[in-house]
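To close the chapter, one final illustration. This time we ask the reader to focus less on the individual chains and more on the assembly as a whole: which components sit near each other, and how the overall shape emerges from the parts.
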Amino acid sequence: MTSLNLEALFQSKIDEETKIEPKDWMPDAYRKTLIRQISQHAHSEIVGMLPEGNWITRAPSLRRKLILLAKVQDEAGHGLYLYSAAETLGANRDDLVQQLLSGKAKYSSIFNYPTLNWADIGAIGWLVDGAAIMNQVMLTRTSYGPYARAMVRICKEESFHQRQGYEIMIAMAKGSPEQKAMAQDAINRWWWPSLMMFGPKDAESSHSDQALKWKIKRKTNDELRQQFVDVTVPQAEYLGLTVPDPDLRWNEEKGSYDFGEIDWEEFWSVVKGNGPCNKQRLQARNKAYEDGAWVREAASAHAAKKEQRKLEPQLATKAA
Amino acid sequence: MKNYLLQLADNALILGHRLGEWCGHAPEMELDIALTNIALDLTGQARSLYQRVAELEGIGPDGTSKTEDDYAYLRDAWEFRNTLLVEQPNGDFAHTIVRQFIFDTYNYYMCRALTQSKDEWLAGFAVKSLKEITYQLRFSSEWMQRLGDGTEVSHAKMQAAIEELWTYSGELTTPNEMEKEMASKGIGVDLTNIKREVDIKMTEILAASNLTAPADTWMQTGGKDGKHSEHMGFILAEMQFLQRAYPGQEW
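The assembled structure is written out below.
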């Protein structure tokens, strides 16, 4: 079959909603796009452990501490499934991790913001995981089978993450004036970065059209962002907290909210490495990797020794 | 009874807290998950024990009853009864594994004996926890061998960690007055009985790991009676920060 025919067959499968599986033929650009997207997602899970991990030792109750530990652990698990999904496309986990550590690969910019008070843990669950879910629910229907299936599993855990985040926000918003102030401070800092999570405006998004045609994505950045605002604003109102956007108002005609312009200068600046924690996050990942090198080497050396010891008696018998 | 339960709980809480410090920073993603699992199990055990203490204490003279969090967040260092070992810093991964292995070996035989406690609640708690603790001992024993019998570098790091932490191993199996009394009632574990099994297991795993315990080590004690190392105050300052700064709030 010529590559033209192969490509037509591939697109017809996509149009018919048949999932693409690892052994199926696929255009190189489809494979590359997926490896990039899935590995960025995996990196985001791993880097995302840091801002929340920052509060594990200071969680204010044993119950909260257990929930937070379990949540951050889930993120490590999500990172692992996603690296595995990328490996089904021929990528190698170690290479992907190296790209993260060298700063070549991107991860979600949201994790380059610091967690400054306990309500940030609530705001991350509610807003950041909430925004991630919008995207991930869409991805459960993505055209690449292993990615879609990984997303189904991840989405179940993410919805628990979002619930626990909102539950923290409720406790804080109903609490003492200081707790309410912490909650408002958290939403003030996390609101705009959460809207930025959906990426550039459709008109400026370089990967969007092809990704939609291939059904890697099924909704545009702006559609998802609008959906997030519409769902989240009433939740903020329920909490009695203010969303830091003076231009936010209900638009009766279109049946959704109008909202202000994102500070795109900040968005690009953080993408380029100038967010408040870009350096610290990469340093932390690199430190864990370097400090752990002797452990990984020892584990391989020990496994090799064990294998050798298993073989030695067999060789001795053969020689005899 | 209350103090016996608190001692078990405090060991679990403080070691779980230390392991939680690793979260996101472990040498491998798989290890991150495993260490967090152990932290979750230990913190869960501490919760059950604190809840039981609160239940036993009942309603106080002021008409209120205590919660699990009162024990974790509102006691000062001298009221904590955990052993010195579990409050030692994580250090490098070798220190964490050696600390874990010393504790797990004690904890496994202690918990196994505790399943025979005359106190029904405690025996039930021990049966439930023994599954988790068995996994913990397997995990740390395997890593002792991987790292002790891995590369020259890993061997040296492990041996150094043992030299440093061994001084805290004796306290685990040396009963204080309260433990003696609880053992005599058949409620607590007679530590002199399990010491032999603990020693045999330690010797077996150390040998399999190519590691040696230092001879004639002075054994530090005191944690069980509230005399802690200087690390304890910092653990509590961090752990209790929100409860202390904003007292009486729901979180």
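The first strand of chain A starts at residue 249 and ends at 251. Chain A touches chain B through 47 residues (CB under 8 Å). With these observations in hand, you are ready for the problems at the end of the chapter.
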